[in-house]
UniProtKB/TrEMBL annotation:
It is an enzyme of class 3 (hydrolase). Residues 1-24 form the signal peptide. Belongs to the glycosyl hydrolase 3 family. Residues 31-43 have a biased composition (Low complexity). SUPFAM superfamilies: (Trans)glycosidases. Its EC number is 3.2.1.52. It comes from Nocardioides hwasunensis. This is beta-N-acetylhexosaminidase. Transmembrane segments: none annotated. Residues 102-407 form the Glycoside hydrolase family 3 N-terminal domain. Pfam families: Glyco_hydro_3 (PF00933). It comes from the Bacteria. Keywords: Glycosidase, Hydrolase, Signal.
Amino acid sequence: MLPIRPRMAVVAAGILLVSGCASLGAGSGEAPDAGPATTASTSPAPPEPSASSAEAQEEDDPSTPSSWGPTLGEIEEAQQLVSGWTPDQLAGQVIVGRFHGTDPQVPAQMVRDLHLAGISVTADNVTDHDQVVAMTTAISEAAADDGRAFPPVIGVDQEGGYVSHLRGIATDFPHFQSAGLAVQADARVGRRVTRAAALTTGLELRGLGFTWVFAPVADVTIGAADPTIGARSPSMDPKIAAQAVGAAIKGYDDAGIVSTVKHFPGHGTATSDSHDTLPQVDSSVAEIEEHDLPPFDSAIRHAAPAVMLSHLDLTSIAPGVPASMAPEVYSMLRDDLGFEGVTITDSLGMGAVGGRPKPALQALQAGADLLLMPVDTATTHQIVVDAIASGEISRERVEEAAARVVAVQMWQARLAAQRPVPDDVVDRARAASADLLAAAY
């Protein structure tokens, strides 16, 4: 199997250092009172371990967190688990399906029959609170029936503003632009209200049975010429956007839900809509690094568990190929920015990738770990199964992808168990929405 190489989270290490210096005494780095002075004949204390040996011990500790959430032990457990799976199971674990209608048993049967990682829920799949809970419960039970001891991916676009598929069921939050405006007005207050908004959004979603949220948007908009993102973006200023995105990631983590920073490496400069066509972006690599990447870099530094890849034709990186299917773009994300978590495509039902042969397989070969909402879920599943059997894609690549997905779901289950949804979550969410709006305007 190709190794998943977890690196220590810089943020987590920083927290440990700060907490270690917070007070004097035991655990603070200060020597405790050792009593009377020792004599020359007393055996010397053993030497302190070198920095390199301490790091090695830490990396061997299965409870050590990775840079994207799961512990080293969870990652290893996931790798061992998927190594024994059939091609049918592996293929399912890298697909998040779509379905039509509102019958909870339809997506549940898909998960059970195709071993799907999970389901993406849209506004067309929901009617009211009870139906949503019945649907997410049925999907979770189907995953358990399939022999999984970890929860399925049950995701939804709930960004705030007009991209909120649970409108009328979950609390309405303003556009994510409000987070950027709040940060711009007062950085400390802005980060606080943004984190609280993400926290309460995540908790409310968990109360409805969701395990993923397809947010926050990290795209830096160019304004009126941007027809797709607009107010979904936190800001036209990369630095402001980076602060808002980092705060949101921490809020979703606090809530015990998997967030999905999107749409890498940045959709805000595209002047056409990828729902309809493949937008061409002619920015140079230097321009992308300066304008588009700072919010994604912030998300990764704040331990983002998942990143969504855009359907953009980046002419300076991989001309003519959607970013979601371009190995060069995955290399930028992993090698240049150091991201080690789950990569997920934007919806494979969008016009930007329509007409391409086997788009899901192209994305998986390029480096995607999750294939989001293919047009025909069952056909896509069979394409991946056949590709594994024929060697068109290596089993190692699919195991690598599936293991990341399993590991992040183990992590989500652990966080959710530690952070129960409060009974007054709706009241908290409404207050957080009002606070964010007040801080922005």
